[in-house]
Amino acid sequence: MKKILLTFLLSIILKFCIYSQQYYQIPDSLASWDCVFEDYFNPGVYDLKRYESKGDTIVNQKSYIKIYSTLKVTYNRADPIHPNPYIIKPIDSTKTLYRLLRKTNDQKVFEIIDTTEYLLYDFSLKINDSLKIPKTDIYYYKVINIDSIQINNSYRKRIEVITNFNGGFDFNYYWIEGIGCTSGLFAEESIQGEFSNWYLSCFKIDSIVNFSQGNYPCYDFSNQSLQVKNNVIINDIIIYPVPIVDISHVIFSNNHKYRYFNIYDVNLRKIIDSNVTNMSEAIINRIYFKPGIYFVELIDYAGNRSTRKINVE
After folding, report:
1. pLDDT tens digits for 212-249?
2. Cβ of 119: how many Cβ atoms within 10 Å?
3. If DSSP codes are grouped into helix, strand and coil, which group holds residue 183?
4. Around Cβ 95, how many Cβ atoms within 10 Å?
C-alpha cells in the first residue's frame, strides 16, 4: 500500500513540475532554425532551409518577430565518387523577410501568412485538445502526450501531437517551448507532399546549439565559410565537380544577372565564350580542354568581371 501511494505521489509531483516550470518564448533575435528535407527517392540527397530571427516590427499595433529566410541549398551526401557533402543545386543566400511571428504571455505563437494571422502553436493545450492547422480547412493537430525535455541546463515543455492526414491520425511529432516543431519551424508547410520528410535538424541561439536531431545535425553552412570540397564558388554560381575530369556543371543563381561565361587558358587565350543570358545551368565538357590550369570569367550586364581558377585533369 505504501509503495502504491509513493508511486502515486511521485506521479503527481512529476506532472506538477512539468506544468509549473518556466515558459520559454521564441527568441526575438540571434536564433536560427535549420530545416532538412530528405528525398526518399534519392537517398543521401537533401534540401536545407535556414530561418533566422532578426528583431521585431509593429503591425496593427502588435509586436511581431521578423523571421528571415537566409539559406536554401541542396546537398548530396550519397555520391560515391566525390567527398561529401557537395552542392548539386544553387545556393540561395538572399536574406529575405519570410514570416512574422507573434508570441503572447498565454503561451501562444501566431504567424502572418498573406496578411492573415493564424495560430501556429499553443503550448497551453492539454491532452486530447486539438488545434486547426494553418491554411487548411479539415486538418488539425491533436495532443496525445505532454512531458519535458532538457535543453542545456533547463527543462522545457514538450507536446506530442498527431495529425489527421490520410483520413486518419498519423504523423507524430513534437512541439518544444521556445523552439517550435521537430518537423521544422513552420511545420504546416510540409503538408504539401511527404510531410514526414521534413525535420528540424538544428536550432541555435547566438551560435550555441540548443537542439539537434536527424542525419545532418548542425553543420556549419554559414555563407561566409561555405567552401565545399569538389566545388568552385564564384559569387553566387557553383561549378562542380572540380577538378574537371569528364562533365562538370555550372549552376547559376535565379536572378540571371550574368551575361557572359568565358574560360581562358594560362596564356589568356579564350577557350569558351558563352552568352548565358537567362540560363540557369551550363556544362563544361572535358574533351575541349588539355590538362592544366584555366580561368573562369563571369561578366554581368554592367560589365563587372569576376574570375576564378579551375583545374582540368
Report:
1. 887 666 765 443 333 334 555 565 677 777 788 877 77
2. 15
3. coil
4. 13
